[in-house]
Specification:
455 residues, alpha/beta, four-stranded antiparallel beta sheet, 15% strand, globular, disordered N terminus
Length: 455
């Protein structure tokens, strides 16, 4: 039943499974869910998104199981349907009785125009139910089946984070909580937390401005959402503004957000400081998202200014006015390997050779932006990646070429769930002060932060 309309007719699982199968098949063919899900019927979309996320989180297991259950690979939509049904059968928390899943998967074939395969789908799923434990044991013997990530991803994490790789992979398969950032220009975090409590929604504090909800709710139901009182932003992402601003910048200081869309960190900077902020993105359509974010949050407020530019940050000659910036945030394009809890398709879309290409882009951006920073200014380099090639290695190479770049305390590599991969006491202290308690740490995706000062 549609939660927004209690009188709406319930949606049959078969109808949802057919749409999920199309979505999973599209991901397997290289399309992102950001492109696929908007095309799903609005009536089905919430359920289809939830079931697609579930299927992709079990994607290694289900592909391994399918290879054991079928002598020949079925057509792509039918294979994706079986992946979705198997994920439901594996996950006891999904809430569907096994016989219902089997029946509805068979019924979904009609919508996929594959009715001749009803017996095949029925046989595969019933065999899984009969031999569940033995089949799962065989599927888990393969690292892809065990960890639900591509083999190259597992191997890279094992090399990069030998003490935490397994915890990071396990965290990726858990749904991320809803994390909010309270707009301090409009309401205090404590006052907003009381408003949530009045509606029966518990939340734990994270950082200076964040709240991690115990249970997710539709954002349009949040008090003050339409008025700009609150935004959705991961707990690790909420570290960017306080790290860059430090003890504060003088009013009117020039700040550059070099890869700003969709504008979450741009907004956080404007919520915390009266600065003159330049927000760049190479894609004009993504720049419109920055404008939308700022309009909803009623930013900038008097005393601050913002300039949104559709420009390539790596080519300053095309957009820079020649005046140095006091602070620069470079949230560089990356593999997004740290946010697969929220975007489970990422792990199946990325390829191992993407990482070197992305790291080259990150190095080029750092080299291009460093000359724009005023002496004594701070540059915060960030990626939502768990791979050292996109974090510590990029910064090490940059510092070797720029001895005037001094490092300031920063978290380094964070893994999903608030795991601090950097053993330094400074990194541990920053994260411990930011996220107190298990639920707060659960509200943190994988990220990398390095803070550099121009000497």
């Amino acid at each position: 039943m549609d939660a927004r309309n209690p009188m709406a007719a319930p949606v049959a699982l078969a109808e949802q499974l057919a749409a999920v199968a199309r979505a999973v098949a599209a991901v397997r063919q290289g399309r992102s869910l950001a492109d696929v899900l908007p095309g799903v019927d609005a009536r089905l979309r919430p359920g289809v998104q939830a079931l697609t996320f579930l299927a992709l989180r079990h994607g290694g297991e289900t592909q391994a199981l399918l290879a054991l259950l079928a002598r020949r690979a079925p057509p792509a939509p039918v294979a994706a349907l079986l992946e979705a049904a198997l994920a439901l059968l594996i996950d006891a928390g999904a809430g569907y009785a096994p016989h219902t899943v089997v029946d509805q998967a068979v019924r979904a074939l009609a919508a996929l125009r594959a009715p001749g395969l009803a017996g095949f789908v029925n046989a595969c799923l019933r065999r899984f139910l009969r031999e569940r434990d033995a089949l799962l044991a065989r599927a888990h013997a393969d690292p892809v089946g065990r960890w639900n990530h591509p083999a190259w991803w597992v191997q890279r994490l094992q090399r990069d984070h030998p003490e935490h790789w397994d915890a990071a992979l396990a965290a990726d398969d858990q749904p991320a909580p809803l994390v909010l950032r309270v707009n301090r220009r409009r309401v205090s975090r404590d006052a907003y937390r009381e408003r949530l409590a009045a509606q029966g929604w518990a939340a734990d504090a994270i950082g200076d401005d964040g709240l991690v909800l115990a249970e997710a709710v539709p954002v349009e139901r949040l008090p003050g959402w339409a008025d700009g009182d609150v935004a959705v932003q991961d707990g690790a992402a909420q570290l960017a503004a306080p790290l860059l601003l430090g003890e504060g910048l003088p009013a009117g200081a020039r700040v550059l957000d070099a890869c700003a869309a969709p504008g979450g960190k741009t907004a956080h900077l404007l919520e915390r400081a009266d600065v003159t902020l330049w927000a760049l993105d190479a894609d004009p359509r993504r720049c419109e998202r920055i404008h939308e974010t700022l309009r909803r949050l009623r930013l900038p407020t008097p005393g601050a200014e913002v300039r949104v530019l559709a420009a390539d940050a790596s080519n300053p000659a095309d957009w820079w006015d020649g005046r140095a910036f006091d602070a620069i945030l470079l949230d560089a394009p990356c593999s997004a390997s740290g946010i697969v809890r929220r975007h489970p398709d990422v792990r199946w879309l990325r390829r191992g050779d993407d990482i070197a290409r992305l790291a080259a882009t990150q190095r080029r951006l750092l080299d291009a932006l460093w000359p724009l920073l005023a002496p004594g200014g701070r540059l915060l380099y960030a990626t939502c990646s768990v791979f050292r090639a996109e974090g510590a290695d990029v910064v090490a190479a940059f510092r070797a070429a720029h001895p005037e770049a001094q490092t300031l305390p920063a978290p380094g590599h964070l893994l999903p769930g608030g795991i601090v991969a950097d053993p330094s006491s400074a990194a541990q202290a920053i994260v411990s002060a930011h996220a107190i308690g298990d639920n707060a740490r659960r509200g943190m995706d994988g990220f990398f932060y390095a803070l550099l000062r121009k000497g």
